[in-house]
């Protein structure tokens, strides 16, 4: 009998073959629960043996001596971040360097995505101390929560005034730009009033990849430590299943090309602009990306020191359990 493993993840399209059972394991019966919000603490959660977790929060936990979970260099959420900076349609801002001295909203200060978005901005010469930052909810439909997460600095990193939604502040000039992983409702229609800061963000992202050699990873897979210890093959098998599900999904999208009228163009761009291993998982293939993220967490003041790759993934460094 296969051992059942329950894992909580966001509703990623490419996991569909795994969810439907087209991709499966001989040893484990993997049940995927699709969640809208990542579970807050896998180590104490009674419902799951594994979960998608924030890379930033995982790194902070490891810096604090976390031992209840085993993180895998299996990056279940990846993406370029240049596209995640939006401004008003009539904004004079056009480049990352233009953000110097500006008022920038972020959906959460230490979120992995926002940390990665600040990385190319820093490469353009605009560090944390070169702009004014406001953390808050994107729209009125989003909850009011503590999005500073202990990293506030009066006069530099603050909560949005009166907890006003950032899109309202952006619309009336209270903010110059907003960093957001997901576009707000209405953004894709005509006349929305907003645009990406970089009008050709694809070209900027392609150039970024050619410089750094990776697509940034925001979320990873983690397993409860007792579960990983009882099942030494689980780390490698979960990594294999995620990769195989992505391969099968991509193969089907290339065949049917039905998701949008122009998805075939997107598939062609991705295949021709990126190497076939751009989303491979495992420690060595992701070593530079992991190291760069650790450096960003330190340079941006989120971690007191930059952790080594081995310190972030000690189980993998010791066993090579989830090597692709």
Task: Explain the overall architecture.
The structure is a single chain. With 324 residues, the protein is an alpha/beta fold. The chain has 2 domains: 3-79 and 216-319, 3-Layer(aba) Sandwich (D-Maltodextrin-Binding Protein, domain 2); 82-212, 3-Layer(aba) Sandwich (D-Maltodextrin-Binding Protein, domain 2). It has helices at 16-20, 55-63, 112-123, 166-171, 201-212, 225-230, 234-256, 263-273, 287-299, 309-312, 314-319, and strands spanning 3-9, 28-34, 50-54, 69-78, 85-88, 103-106, 132-135, 157-159, 177-179, 194-196, 217-224. The strands form 2 sheets. Strands 8-7-6-9-5-10 form a 6-stranded mixed β-sheet. The protein has a 5-stranded mixed β-sheet with strand order 2-1-3-11-4. Strand 1 (3-9), helix 1 and strand 2 form a beta-alpha-beta unit. The chain is globular and about 60 Å long.
Query: What composes the largest sheet?
Result: 6 strands, mixed
The CATH homologous superfamily of the largest domain is termed Periplasmic binding protein-like II
**CATH topology annotation of the largest domain:** D-Maltodextrin-Binding Protein, domain 2
Overall average pLDDT: 96
* Class based on secondary structure composition and strand pairing: alpha/beta
Q: Could you say how many structural domains there are in total?
A: 2
The level-1 CATH class of the largest domain? Alpha Beta
Distance between the termini: 26 Å
Strand order of the biggest β-sheet: 8-7-6-9-5-10
Radius of gyration: 20 Å
Q: Helix and strand succession?
A: EHEEHEEEHEEHEEHEHHHHHH
How large a portion of the residues is in β-strands, by DSSP E?
A: 15-25%
Shape: globular
Query: Helical segment tally?
Result: 11
- Kindly state the number of beta strands: 11
């Amino acid at each position: 009998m296969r051992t059942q493993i329950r894992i909580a993840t966001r509703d990623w399209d490419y996991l569909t073959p795994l969810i439907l059972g087209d991709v499966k394991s001989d040893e484990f019966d993997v049940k995927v629960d699709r969640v809208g919000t990542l579970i807050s603490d896998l180590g104490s959660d009674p419902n799951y043996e594994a979960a998608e977790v924030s890379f930033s929060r995982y790194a902070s936990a490891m810096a604090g001596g976390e031992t209840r979970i085993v993180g895998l260099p299996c990056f279940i959420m990846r993406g370029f971040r240049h596209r995640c900076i939006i401004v008003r349609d009539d904004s004079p801002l056009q480049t990352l360097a233009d953000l110097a001295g500006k008022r920038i909203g972020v959906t959460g200060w230490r979120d992995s995505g926002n940390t990665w978005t600040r990385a190319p901005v820093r490469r353009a010469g605009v560090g944390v101390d070169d702009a004014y930052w406001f953390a808050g909810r994107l729209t009125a439909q989003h909850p009011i929560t503590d999005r500073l997460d202990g990293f506030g600095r009066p006069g530099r990193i603050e909560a949005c005034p009166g907890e006003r939604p950032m899109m309202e502040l952006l619309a009336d000039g209270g903010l110059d730009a907003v960093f957001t992983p997901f576009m707000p409702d209405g953004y894709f229609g005509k006349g929305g009033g907003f645009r990406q800061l970089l009008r050709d963000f694809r070209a900027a992202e392609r150039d970024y990849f050619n410089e750094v050699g990776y697509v940034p990873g925001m979320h990873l897979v983690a397993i409860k430590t007792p579960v990983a210890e009882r099942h030494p093959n689980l780390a490698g098998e979960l990594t294999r299943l995620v990769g195989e599900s992505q391969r099968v999904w991509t193969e089907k999208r290339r065949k049917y090309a039905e998701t949008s009228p122009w998805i075939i163009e997107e598939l062609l761009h991705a295949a021709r602009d990126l190497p076939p291993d751009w989303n491979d998982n495992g420690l060595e293939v992701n070593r530079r990306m992991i190291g760069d993220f650790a450096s960003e967490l330190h340079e941006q003041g989120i971690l007191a020191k930059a952790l080594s790759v081995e310190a972030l993934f000690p189980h993998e460094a010791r066993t090579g359990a989830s090597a692709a």
